[in-house]
Write a structure and sequence with these properties.
Order of helices and strands: HEEEEHHHHHHHEHHHEEEEH
Distance between the termini: 21 Å
CATH superfamily of the largest domain: DD-peptidase/beta-lactamase superfamily
Oligomer: single chain
Structural class: alpha+beta
Number of domains: 2
Strand content: 5-15%
Shape: globular
Helix content: 40-55%
Bound molecules: glutamine
Number of strands: 9
Length: 317
């Protein structure tokens, strides 16, 4: 087994960077263009509190679909598992992340899971607060507490405007769910706005690694010992990350990497190795399924060389 060090991380980034050529940078997120096509940054935080980092780890990028993890954590804490999973199911799907067809056919018209767009919009209707602004501020300050960063971790107004402008598919998902009674009209409008805003929060690979570590540490902030989210809810979120966090590539990642992950179309991935470490990755060149190609390769390498797969045979009885 390899030992974690900055030198080791640099080797991993060097070996995986060529895979950036196999994807493409999405063309409508402000601040992200083809000049970032070969970027690859990785940060790890271990349970000892050590930080290891390599590559373009100073890039700021928007959360995009990693928002879905935070929205689900808040909804579970606010409303509990029974209520949340009446609105949205917890099953994997082979459809693309922004698919609408399953909403017409699937039982009760519920979205398959909280980590596809329809599911995240439905889940966003279950975050407490009397206005969208108040609900957003609760989420933002939760994320700032987890990451210990209230400077870089903030709403990117330009990205927010672009989420609204390019949101036709998301609006159609929300209105479709209104038509089938999954959401009321008010819920649909507000959930969409909240979803756009949380997608537009800026982070970096260190912030993602801290989010990953928070999940790996079962919802507790190590430095203060405060349990921000009940551990049973964090367990639920990690299970759905394993089965649905990489969209319709989740099965492949469960086999090849073997720990909970969530990706976003900015090319970001958060990883949580239970009880061991948090991982934050940025690699903006993504494949057709919305996942960072080089980032995925980094995860495969880390999993193998550091023996991170939770199904590993290290504990034979
Ligand atoms: N902003 C994107 C959307 O809502 C996020 C999707 C993603 O990261 N996969 O479609």
């Amino acid at each position: 087994m390899d030992k974690l060090s900055n030198g080791f991380m640099e080797e991993v980034v060097k070996a995986c960077r060529p895979y950036t050529a196999q994807g493409e940078v999405i063309d409508h997120i402000p601040g992200l263009d083809q000049s970032h096509a070969t970027d690859l940054g990785v940060t790890i935080i271990t349970k000892e509190g050590d930080v290891y980092s390599a590559g373009e780890d100073d890039c700021n990028f928007s959360l995009q679909s990693i928002s879905k993890v935070i929205i689900l954590l808040m909804a579970l804490e606010d409303f509990g598992k029974e209520v949340v999973f009446q609105k949205v199911d917890m099953e994997p799907t082979d459809d693309f992340f922004n698919s609408i067809s399953n909403l017409e056919n699937y039982e009760g018209h519920r979205p398959y899971n909280p980590f596809i767009n329809s599911g995240a919009i439905a889940t966003a209707s279950l975050v407490n607060g009397s206005t969208v602004e108040e609900r957003f501020q609760r989420i933002l300050s939760f994320l700032q507490t987890i990451t210990g960063d209230d400077e870089k971790v903030k709403l990117n107004e330009e990205v927010y405007r672009s989420e609204i402008k390019n949101g036709a598919r998301n609006r159609s998902l929300a209105y479709f769910m209104e038509s089938t009674g999954v959401l009321s009209n008010r819920e649909a409008e507000e959930a969409l706005d909240l979803y756009y805003r949380v997608n537009s929060i800026d982070v970096n690979s260190l912030a993602l690694a801290k989010l990953g570590f928070f999940l790996a540490n079962h919802g507790k902030i190590s430095a203060t010992g405060s349990q921000l989210i009940q551990s049973r809810h964090v367990r639920t979120v990690k299970a759905i990350m394993l089965t649905s966090g990489m969209y319709n590539e989740s099965g492949t990642y469960a086999v090849d990497v073997g720990f909970p992950l969530k990706s976003g179309v900015s090319g970001s991935i958060v990883g949580a190795v239970p009880g061991r470490m948090g991982i934050g990755i940025i690699g903006p060149s993504i494949n057709k399924k919305g996942n960072s190609v080089a980032g995925g390769q980094v995860l495969r390498m880390l999993s193998e060389k550091l023996r991170l797969n939770i199904f590993h045979d290290s504990t034979i009885v």
